[in-house]
Amino acid sequence: MIRLLIWLLIAYIGYRVVKALMAPKPPVPAAPARNSEETVQDPVCGTYVAKADAIVGRLDGERHYFCSMTCLEKFREQLDHTTPPH
Ligand SMILES: [Zn+2]
After folding, report:
1. pTM for the full model?
2. CB 67 within 8 Å of CB 46
3. How many folded domains does the chain comprise?
4. Has residue 10 been placed in a domain?
5. Less Cβ crowding at N or C end of the chain, within 10 Å?
6. How far is the CA of 42 from the centre of ligand 1 (A)?
């Protein structure tokens, strides 16, 4: 009896799988265009990062975008070396 139930279950699952494969796929709604997502270039390593994910550093009165804190620190160091001593 249990064997019969298992076979019925397997048949049912098989039927569902076949039906799912045969059924036409519903149209996938197009993902909303992410036009607002700006990318910025890391001036240190040249990597493009999404503005939302970028690390913003206000250096030398300007906003700079970096992929990581490491790059921000590097940029800051470079800035320190290039600025003439007062
Ligand atoms: Zn970087």
Report:
1. 0.52
2. no
3. 1
4. no
5. C
6. 5
